[in-house]
Design a protein that fits this description.
37% of the residues lie in helices and 18% in strands. It is an alpha+beta fold. Helix 2 packs antiparallel against helix 7 and helix 5 runs antiparallel to helix 6.
Length: 212
């Protein structure tokens, strides 16, 4: 009887380690690599416009980076900053996230390119958040930051750019958000990139999905 109880406890303990509370898999730092891209659904005003425009599964994204043995997410917050990965995950809806990786990561991330990539990442630290979703280099929103870092480091376009006019602006909710940000002069030809477009990039593969 005692042996049976011990076996049950062992199974429960292993299950908790693998799946964590609520049956979801916890992040495994051993599988992470610098440059992995992490996605979540973040409830904040800063993501409301692109959420209203595209109704994505995930509306916020950032780049995973290791610093002194710890993992961080480089994200466009206010300002662009490195956020501990556990804190970043906890700020999302139900702690759900997906991690993706460039298909060519093993080839591209040699020592020389790693240095160039880190230099590109560091150059954006401290930059302000862009609540107007413009394509300038004065301020940045999350998907723009990720796209531009890979472009700067590797001359890679993770996905095609869109313009604001590509989105459906007819719903009352969308019109309200657009007017709140732009007033009566909506820049329909402003280039934008959504987290949804990055998430669906054919150049990325899924490394971990803790919702499954």
């Amino acid at each position: 009887m005692k042996l049976c109880i011990v076996k049950i406890l062992c199974v429960l303990f292993v299950s908790i380690l693998i799946y964590g509370c609520g049956g979801r898999k916890q992040i495994d730092a051993n599988i992470l690599k610098d440059g992995d891209i992490i996605f979540q659904n973040k409830k904040s005003k800063s993501s409301e416009l692109l959420t209203a425009l595209s109704v994505p599964e995930f509306n916020h994204t950032g780049i995973l980076l290791s610093r002194n043995g710890k993992w961080y997410v480089l994200e466009a917050s206010q300002p662009v900053e490195l956020t501990p990965v556990s804190s970043w995950i906890n700020s999302g809806d139900e702690d759900l996230y997906v991690i993706k990786r460039l298909k060519e990561a093993d080839t591209l991330f040699n020592e020389e390119n790693k240095e160039r990539f880190n230099k590109a990442c560091n150059s954006y630290l401290g930059k302000p958040y862009d609540s107007h979703f413009s394509w300038s280099d004065d301020a940045f929103y999350s998907s723009e930051l990720v796209w531009k870092i890979f472009k700067a480091a590797f001359d890679i376009e993770l996905c095609s750019l869109q313009i604001l006019g590509d989105f459906d602006l007819t719903s009352s909710e969308t019109r309200e958000k657009v007017k709140e940000i732009y007033g009566n002069k909506v820049p329909l030809y402003e280039e934008v990139i959504s987290a949804e477009a990055l998430f669906n990039s054919s150049q990325l593969i899924t490394i971990m999905d803790n919702g499954k």
